[in-house]
């Protein structure tokens, strides 16, 4: 019930081979104390965060240093926890959450390259065995594509689902599929099936290639783990069980913010880019208003987009939220990098009441 600030961490990816070959300069430098310095023509600024992971940081270091392990424990205790990654196209959001794009059920990623999601699943199952709790685990996986909410786990081509609101549940997706799982392999299999293209060209999550990224996510994806726990008790008056707790652990992979001119997008890709930017703008507006002192806050326009409706509880409600801001250190990406840094700095002032 106490006010809790959003935890915001920053990850700076390495310069790519393409950026190095064309002579891009590195304009973002980690200062080693949770802050970064941006040094470029007409720009000289320092930004502070809960933690900063530079180009040399491993996937394990990001998992341990960002506090995701604590979020898993809180979710088991009955809290609503959310991790979401944001930043421009090609900044490493999906890699941070999922690891290499080339992985599949037959070609799993090397253990050291696994992302925050897979590490959280392993931690969740490890915690459930160690606590002596009776845990029931299930998962749902949604994407928001062109302002339509689609179920990535339902059989057949993804179809649009209605987004509803109720006084008791807040915003929720009607008729979304939830799948039970009991092992790390089962949930990882679900995740990879939903992310990768399936036979007959029926691709699940929408990705496309353009000038900035060969595998650009064209939708926002939300994977939610539902954790129903009941601690076993030996006290006869309790009938062998304690009251149950229901927590959630949600991972949000936001589509990358981008300048349509830079991506060379046209036609359908241009429509997708405009819808992505419009929903990210709505999210930024909500964060700006939530960052104001509580006495000065006005109406928060969650209804401006499907994304802000689904994140309403995480951002301004009763949840515990970790934001992972991903940026490129390249001088060519300076404008988008500064935009992400300002965005993340505002988010640090947002508070919730878990």
From TrEMBL:
Biological-process GO terms, alphabetical: microtubule-based movement; mitotic spindle organization; spindle elongation
GO cellular component, one term: microtubule
Gene3D superfamilies in UniProt: Kinesin motor domain
Record-level Gene Ontology MF annotations: ATP binding; microtubule binding; microtubule motor activity
Binding-site positions, ATP: 87-94
UniProt keyword annotation of Cytoplasm present: yes
Chief location: cytoplasm
InterPro entries, per the entry: Kinesin-like_fam, Kinesin_motor_CS, Kinesin_motor_dom, Kinesin_motor_dom_sf, P-loop_NTPase
Matching SMART domains: KISc (SM00129)
Record's keyword terms, sorted: ATP-binding, Cytoplasm, Cytoskeleton, Microtubule, Motor protein, Nucleotide-binding
Keyword check for Protein biosynthesis: no
Listed SUPFAM superfamilies: P-loop containing nucleoside triphosphate hydrolases
Domain Kinesin motor: 5-350
Location within or outside the cell: Cytoplasm, Cytoskeleton
Family classification: Belongs to the TRAFAC class myosin-kinesin ATPase superfamily. Kinesin family.
Cited PANTHER family: CHROMOSOME-ASSOCIATED KINESIN KIF4A-RELATED (PTHR47969), KINESIN-LIKE PROTEIN (PTHR47969:SF33)
Protein name per the record: Kinesin-like protein
Organism the protein comes from: Eurystomus gularis
């Amino acid at each position: 019930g106490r006010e809790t600030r959003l935890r915001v961490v920053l990850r700076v990816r390495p310069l790519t081979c393409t950026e190095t070959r064309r002579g891009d300069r590195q304009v973002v430098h980690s200062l080693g104390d949770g802050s970064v310095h941006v040094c470029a023509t007409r720009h000289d600024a320092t930004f502070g965060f809960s933690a900063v992971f530079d180009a040399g940081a491993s996937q394990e270091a990001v998992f341990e240093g960002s506090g995701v392990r604590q979020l898993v424990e809180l979710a088991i205790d009955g809290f609503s926890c959310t991790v979401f990654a944001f930043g421009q196209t090609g900044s490493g959001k999906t890699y941070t959450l999922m690891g290499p794009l080339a992985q599949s059920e037959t070609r799993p990623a090397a253990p050291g390259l696994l992302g925050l999601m897979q590490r959280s699943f392993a931690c969740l199952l490890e915690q459930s065995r160690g606590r002596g709790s009776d845990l029931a685990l299930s998962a749902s996986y949604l994407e928001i594509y062109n302002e339509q909410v689609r179920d990535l786990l339902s059989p057949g081509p993804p179809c649009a689902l209605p987004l509803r609101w109720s006084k008791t549940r807040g915003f929720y997706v009607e008729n979304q599929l939830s799948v039970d799982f009991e092992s790390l392999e089962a949930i990882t299999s679900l995740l990879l099936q939903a992310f990768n293209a399936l036979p007959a060209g029926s691709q699940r999550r929408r990705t496309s290639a353009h000038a900035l990224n060969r595998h650009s996510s064209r939708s926002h994806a939300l994977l939610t783990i539902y954790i129903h726990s009941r601690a076993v008790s030996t006290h006869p008056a309790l009938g062998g069980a304690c009251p149950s707790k229901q927590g959630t652990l949600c991972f949000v992979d936001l589509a990358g913010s981008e300048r349509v001119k830079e991506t060379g997008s046209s036609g359908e890709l241009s429509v997708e880019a405009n819808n992505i930017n419009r929903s990210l703008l709505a999210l930024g507006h909500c964060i700006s208003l939530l960052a104001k002192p509580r006495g000065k806050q006005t109406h928060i326009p969650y209804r401006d987009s499907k994304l802000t409706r689904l994140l309403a509880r995480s951002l301004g409600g009763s949840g515990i939220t970790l934001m992972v801001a991903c940026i490129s250190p390249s001088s060519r990406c300076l404008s988008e990098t500064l935009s992400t840094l300002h965005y993340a700095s505002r988010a640090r002032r947002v508070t919730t009441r878990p």
